[in-house]
Write a sequence for this structure.
């Protein structure tokens, strides 16, 4: 039978117990139509990116389903009729993930710490790279040392107003 990952979002004003009852109700539809629920995870009440049916938050629930397409279609039809369900997403997958989903893993378990500890790969970033401390590298070849730049910057500043005056006089 095909495998599916199904996520639905329910309204913010329903309780976690009501979300559990909804999940049980939809799981029964799957089992009655010859399928099974491999895993069910409650992700909690989370902020939505934008208002959906006047809701700023929603209860997220994940279901890993092993069922024929007809069973999943019937479950989605029932969700469309239920006013407590805001959004539904069903994806067909080749295999289900083992263990907790990415939403249930802590940040450290996913391989990164806080925001500044992201792995930037080849891009480097302000913290990344094997460049070493800045003071050991010396001046860059494509520009002069600091003391030589000051006269050039002053000359450039003087030339800029003169160029603007020439443009206006034409």
């Amino acid at each position: 039978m095909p495998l599916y990952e199904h996520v639905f979002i329910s309204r913010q004003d329903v309780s976690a117990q009501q979300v559990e009852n909804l999940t049980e109700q939809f799981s029964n539809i799957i089992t009655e139509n010859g399928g099974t629920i491999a895993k069910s995870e409650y992700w909690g009440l989370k902020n939505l990116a934008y208002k959906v049916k006047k809701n700023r938050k929603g209860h997220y629930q994940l279901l890993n389903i092993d069922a024929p397409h007809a069973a999943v279609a019937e479950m989605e039809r029932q969700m469309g009729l239920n006013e407590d369900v805001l959004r539904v997403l069903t994806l067909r997958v080749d295999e289900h993930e083992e263990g907790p989903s990415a939403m249930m893993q802590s940040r450290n378990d996913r391989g990164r710490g806080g925001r500044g500890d992201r792995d930037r790969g080849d891009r480097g970033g302000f913290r990344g790279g094997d460049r070493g401390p800045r003071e050991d590298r010396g001046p860059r070849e494509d520009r002069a040392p600091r003391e030589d730049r000051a006269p050039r910057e002053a000359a450039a500043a003087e030339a800029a107003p003169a160029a603007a005056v020439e443009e206006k006089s034409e």
User: Anything to note?
Assistant: DSSP finds three helices and four strands in the chain. The CA atoms of residues 113 and 152 lie 45 Å apart.
